[in-house]
Amino acid sequence: MFATIFFSAIALFVLDCLLASVTMYIAYSHGHSRLKWFLLGLVLPFVSIFIALAVAILDERRAEAARGGAPRPTPEPGEF
C-alpha cells in the first residue's frame, strides 16, 4: 500500500514538472523569466499553461500595436 501511494506521488510530481516545463518554455520564448514561470507552473500546473498562453498573446498584440500594424521583421538565417 505504501509503495502504491509513493509511486503515485512520484508520478504526479513528474507530471507537475512536465507541465511546469511547458509553461516555462512558453513564457521564455516570449521573453519572460524562466524561474518565475517554472515556479508558477509548479504551483498551478494546469492553469499556468493557459495563463502563459494568454500573456504571450497579449505580448504579441502589444508588439503589433507598437509597430503600428507593420509586419514583424523576419530574422536573417542563423538569428533567433
Walkthrough of the structure:
The chain is mainly α. The protein has one domain. The chain has three helices and no strands. Helix 1 packs antiparallel against helix 2, helix 1 packs parallel to helix 3 and helix 2 packs antiparallel against helix 3. The radius of gyration is 17 Å and the shape is elongated. The relative contact order is 0.11. The mean pLDDT is 89.
Blueprint of the fold:
Elements: H1 2-29, H2 34-43, H3 47-66
Helix pairs in contact: 1-2, 1-3, 2-3
Give me the secondary-structure category.
mainly alpha
What can be said about the biggest beta sheet?
Answer: none
Unreliable stretches (pLDDT < 50, length at least 5) are: none
Mean pLDDT: 89
How far apart, in Å, are the first and last alpha carbons? 50 Å
Radius of gyration: 17 Å
In DSSP terms (H or I, runs of 4 or more residues), the helix count works out at: 3
Query: Overall 3D geometry?
Result: elongated
The amount of beta strand, in percent, is under 5%
| Integer count of domains | 1
Helix content: over 70%
